[in-house]
Every structure is written in C-alpha cells, then in structure tokens.
C-alpha cells in the first residue's frame, strides 16, 4: 500500500512537472502593454456615428458603450463629459457591407461582413491629433440572411471591434 501511494505521488509530480514545462512555453497575451502618456488624466469618448451605406442601428451605441467600459475598466483615465478632456475620442462607422468570399458548386457558400471604423484621437494636452482606421471581417454562411448573420455574429462583432479600437488607441505595438 505504501508503494502504491509513493507511485501515485511520483506520477502526480511528473504530471505537474510536464504541465509546468508546457505552460512555460505558452505566451499569454494581455492588455498590460497599455501606453498612455503620464500627463494624460482624462478622456471623453463621443458617441460613435454610423455613416455606412447600410446601418445596423444597434452597432454604434453598443460599440460606444463597450469601448467606454473597456477604457474605464482597463486604464487609469477618468471619464469626463466636457470636450476639454485631455483626450477626446471620436469615431465613425464608415463601412458595413457584405461580400462573397467563398464559392462552391458555382454558388456562394461563404459571405463576409466587412466593418470599418474611423477613430480620431485629439490630444488636447500635446495639441495633436491622430486618426486610425480599424477594419474587421466576419465570415458567415451564404445561406444566412444578413439579419440572421448579424444575430449570430453580434457579440463577435462588438468584441472584435472593441478590442481592435482599444488596441489601436492604447497599446504600444
């Protein structure tokens, strides 16, 4: 019985060692590489406008809210209401379109929803402006209507765009 217990402990130690070795080779990506100048203390994010040819009425307000939550939750910036914030962020959805990206048996099999957001960062402290374009593509079966695809992709679209915009604004790549 003692030998059996010793064998189990040895096997457990080997497994722990293997898991440790395996995990040490994995790189976990986080948002710890946030790069905000020390003099920047406040931020205002205006409602993202939707000027695409096709308008998803929920996209702009939902994207604005999620981006606001991410900024407040993952940076030390204080949110303010006035346009005199250290950083003033504005955005516009400029493209929301569908293209065929896969063909099988001479018929569309895969479609792609393309979403482009233009972001403008006005730095009132350092008196400069920067503009970014974020483009994300989301694939869906061609058998789905756009409404069906939007319903199934909604969370992926919002999360993907929020992460992309946040990374462009705050990560020092």
CATH architecture descriptor text: 2-Layer Sandwich
Q: Structural class of the secondary elements?
A: alpha/beta
Mean pLDDT: 84
Helix content: 25-40%
Topology pattern, helix = H, strand = E? HEEHEEEEH
Strand content: 25-35%
Largest sheet: 6 strands, mixed
C-alpha-based Rg, rounded: 23 Å
Count of beta strands: 6
Report the CATH topology name.
Answer: Double Stranded RNA Binding Domain
> CATH superfamily, called what?
Lipoprotein like domain
- Structural domains: how many: 1
- The coarse silhouette is elongated
| Separation, N- and C-terminal Cα atoms | 57 Å
* Name of the CATH class: Alpha Beta
The stretches of 5 or more residues where confidence is low (pLDDT under 50) are: 17-31
- Count helical runs: 3
Walk me through the structure.
It is a single chain. This protein has helices at 2-24, 59-74, 146-170; strands at 42-45, 49-50, 78-79, 87-104, 107-123, 128-141. It is an alpha/beta fold and 173 residues long. The protein has one domain (38-170): Lipoprotein like domain (Double Stranded RNA Binding Domain), CATH 3.30.160. Strands 1, 2, 3, 4, 5 and 6 form a 6-stranded mixed beta sheet that branches. Strand 4 (87-104) and strand 5 (107-123) form a beta hairpin. The relative contact order is 0.16. The model is unreliable at 17-31 (pLDDT under 50).
Q: How would you summarize what this structure contains?
A:
This protein has three helices and six strands.
């Amino acid at each position: 019985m003692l030998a059996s217990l010793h064998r189990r402990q040895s096997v457990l130690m080997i497994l722990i060692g293997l898991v440790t070795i395996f995990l040490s080779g994995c790189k976990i990506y986080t948002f710890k590489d946030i790069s905000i100048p020390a003099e920047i203390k406040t931020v205002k994010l205006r409602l993202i406008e939707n000027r695409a040819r096709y308008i998803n009425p929920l996209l702009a307000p939902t994207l604005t809210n999620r981006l606001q939550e991410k900024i407040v939750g993952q940076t030390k910036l204080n949110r303010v209401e006035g346009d005199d914030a250290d950083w003033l962020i504005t955005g516009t959805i400029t493209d929301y379109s569908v293209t065929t990206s896969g063909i099988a048996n001479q018929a569309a099999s895969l479609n792609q929803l393309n979403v482009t957001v233009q972001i403008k960062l006005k730095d009132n402290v350092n008196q400069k402006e920067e503009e970014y374009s974020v483009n994300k593509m989301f694939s869906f079966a061609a058998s789905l209507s756009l409404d069906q695809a939007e319903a199934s992709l909604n969370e992926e679209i919002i999360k993907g765009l929020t992460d992309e915009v946040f990374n462009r604004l705050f990560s020092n790549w």
